[in-house]
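Here is one chain, start to finish.
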Amino acid sequence: MFKTGGAGGQNYALHDTTNDFMVSLAVSSFMANNASTILVALTVPAGWANGEVIFREASSNWDIRVVTGNLITYRNFDTNYDTTAGQAFVDGTPLIYACKHIGGNIYDSKNGGAWSSPVASGNCTVTGLLQVGATGALLMHMYGLAMANVEISDADLALNVNYFKQQLGIA
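Its structure:
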């Protein structure tokens, strides 16, 4: 559902876990099984539950989710689930979450900070549809989403992160 008056006065998509969600083309249209970069600008309101998904490949071969401890994690399935340690967030506070799967490892970062330690993770299957805010998923305010099937240089990624930080009033 389209909403106005979010962080920094910006508009956002409200995914309410029941009927406001998006399903896109096959993830393989914009992600490779061994190389990807994802950037999402969002706010996680209070009231979420452990393991709720922000978005995913429909077969759950990879996803971005919230977990106990107020962490957002990136999870990739090669033959087992491999998960980043996660990035801390504060309920109701906007943030820019980035993650990547490059060179057999997964990483994540928040608000343009340093990348997390690498977590070894092989290729995953990326044939399902992209689901954003699917039924039963996380209640969230999404300001923007970008995905690429290559590694984006840190300098180029910083341009996007800084744009969203300025728009959302993140210091």
